[in-house]
Amino acid sequence: MTARGGRGLVPLLAFLGMMAYSLSMAVVTPALALIQQGLHTTAAGAAWAITAMTLSAAVATPVVGRLGDLYGPRRVLLAVLAIATVGMVIAAAAGSLPLMLVGRMLSGIGGGVFPLAYTIIRDVYPPARTASAVGLMSSMLGLGGAVSWCLAGPIIDLLGWRWLLWVPVAGLVPGVLLAWWIVPASPPREAAKVDWWGAALFGGWLVAALTALTEGMDWGWTSPGVLGLLGLAALLALVWLRVEARVAEPLVDLRLMRVRGVWTANAASLLSGYALMAGGLLFPLLVQLPASTGYGFGGTATQAALLQLPASIGMTAAGMTAGLLDRRIGSRLVLLGGAVLTAAGYAFVVVEHAAMWQLYVGGLGRGIGLGFAYAAVANLVVAAVPAGETGVATGINTLIRTVGASLGTQVSAVIVAGLPGERGFSAGFAVSSAVMVAVLPLALLVPPRARRSGKGAPCRGEERSAAPVT
């Protein structure tokens, strides 16, 4: 499979797609108060501009990945980018909250660019260069976050909050054109079927669980609404597991998810997602608290964004380097190093956070460590699964990371609220450090390189019997 425009343009396509999606997900956060005013809604209603896209992306990502495995990544990628672009336009032009939520839900389907991009990389690049390309793509997450925070303030101040929602469209439009030009077509596999019942049940329990997780702080963790949603999620999950175990071509091959290289990487992704978003809440909040508290810095939103910039750049650089390290020492050791760096960065700010330079040092260690960890888990999953399962496996991995990110935000907020004063931040940083320490045994459980090589990846008809469960 050879790209029409050359392999060198594939990272550019991935950059545009992932950057546009990351921007679309992140740019709403600094504009929530203005969206509330502009659409004449409540704070909770405005917050659903984030929640709607998060839920949509969580459900769509593994489903889109599976469709890419079955029908080829090119046609699915074109459809996903087109739908996401339409959604972003609707959200940017919306005059009411319901219309904006429709647009944001359509935009969330753009989360499917992640597994599709990994599938394209595996198809286009030779095995020796796959790890480097995957690492480069994983680094786009950090760069997208950095760009979104840097753009938010000036655009809102000079042009207004609606222009902030138009920015991702500028990335997706050329992305659609590049995808049409660069990504080669691939024929659908014979007798390919989509497990739509499995997809519907999967989406049902996932939406119920994530809604409970998202609204737990506002509704109360023991409220009837949260407990009811959790109960519904558990019931639908049990039915889904039963369906997936019986259908001939399930949405998710559960036996594949039990492969040691896959489940260890997924567990590490959950914890890494927690560590990413915990810092995304704790660092800016600490910077913007009034100096009169004795531990806050009384900084502006711009200063909080600038604090995130070195960490995001460090995450990007680490992701780019991780692929090269994979070829020398393997992603197992890259994951170990990333976990150690992230844990050390958080441990430093547990005891030293009285000056801004200390936050920069701790944040930079966190960013570099997470850049290594994110790239490593993506490479581990890609290497552990047959080629025909790359999309759905990396989609599940992305989904699990999203769940971890939600946990990082919610748990950190609970800690800060439950432990008043400086203790709340120290405890939040300490928990994040402990979470990354828990990644260390997972990294040690990853099979050695020789056992997880992608050599001789079986064809679709051989995949189920070929994937060892260890």
TrEMBL record:
Query: Which residue numbers delimit the Major facilitator superfamily (MFS) profile domain?
Result: 10-451
Give the main localization category.
membrane
An annotated Gene Ontology molecular function: transmembrane transporter activity
Question: What Pfam families has UniProt attached to this entry?
Answer: MFS_1
Give the signal peptide range.
Answer: none
Could you state one GO cellular component term attached to this entry? plasma membrane
UniProt keywords (A-Z) are:
Cell membrane, Membrane, Transmembrane, Transmembrane helix, Transport
Residue spans of biased composition, Basic and acidic residues class:
460-470
Q: Where is this region: Disordered?
A: 451-470
Q: Which sequence ranges are marked TM in the entry? A: 43-64, 76-95, 101-121, 133-156, 162-182, 194-213, 219-241, 262-287, 307-326, 333-356, 368-387, 399-419, 425-446
- Name where it's found: Cell membrane
Q: Which membrane topology term applies here?
A: Multi-pass membrane protein
| Protein name per the record | Major facilitator superfamily protein
